[in-house]
Automatic annotation (TrEMBL):
Nucleotidyltransferase found in the keyword field: no
Keyword Signal among record annotations: yes
InterPro entries, per database record: Na+/solute_symporter_sf (IPR038770), Put_Na-Bile_cotransptr (IPR016833)
Protein name: Bile acid:sodium symporter
Assigned GO CC terms: plasma membrane
Keyword terms of this UniProt record: Membrane, Signal, Transmembrane, Transmembrane helix
Transmembrane portions of the chain: 36-51, 63-82, 94-114, 126-148, 160-177, 198-220, 226-246, 258-280
Native organism: Streptomyces niveus
Extent of the signal sequence: 1-26
Classification of source organism: Bacteria, Bacillati, Actinomycetota, Actinomycetes, Kitasatosporales
Amino acid sequence: MPIDPYILALLGTVALAALLPASGTAADVAGGATTGAVALLFFLYGARLSTREALDGLKSWRLHLTVLACTFLVFPLLGLAARGLVPFALTPELYSGLLFLCLVPSTIQSSIAFTSMARGNVPAAICAGSFSSIAGIVVTPLLAALLLGGGANGFSADSLLRIVAQLLLPFVAGQLLRRWVGGFLTRHRTLLGRVDRGSILLVVYTAFSQGMVAGVWNQVTPGRLGALFAVEVVLLAAMLTISWYGARRLGFDRADRVAIQFAGSKKSLAAGLPMASVLFGAQASLAVLPLMLFHMLQLVVCAMIAKRRSRDPLPEPSLDEPAAVRTRAVAGQG
């Protein structure tokens, strides 16, 4: 399968931070730029989200609740279960990063792309990913404070205030100003997409530079990285299985199950990296390592699943089904 150029850019950024880490004045400048970039990211998230579309999406509330339960309930429970792997397979720092990964909201873009490829319910995937991202701005820091607080990470009221200042307030500002800036964002979607990705690369560079300067990478061995990868393979396989068969037990049709599987089993690098930089400080490099590894893994595995599901025969809708259901099935066949 072709390699995502953005994955290569992420790996290149990590290599640059390892060879030329920012320190001293350069670190202060990079830290200030990262703070501004994170605020800009969440302002753009807020300005792009159509409130009207979000409200319309509430009609599929059972599906959205299922995705939220996978993202913020089942994932954290599996993360807590992995605590038994410390210190035999994972170091405490890598485990903290793994648990933080389990608290991050679902991704939007790739969930939509894979749902479309697999001929699933694309509108539901759009809304589910959007709702997860909105909820994650509040739920992820609260869960992090609850499950990771009191330890080496130093979560406190100050951490939550930083989240509000750098993430929540810019998001709300984007929503309030959408009326005036929404058209501009739509016309310059490609350019702003590059701004998004560039901002995330800056966050990665700053986080890994701090890790290099602080010497945290001396704590990671190839054996530990291999164990982390194996744990994440099991975690992804468990969530793909739970989301697919759990949705079937709940009575969802195939199109909805596809959307639930892809939105409920994936984690957002774009949302998780800025949050980690705010919450973990100098330890952010180890905190984001599990998330970056999981991001690459989920892209490869879900692409293969979506390609396979695209060849599934679709059920023929009966004449007594609602028109919307028949229309969706016909569109999926096309």
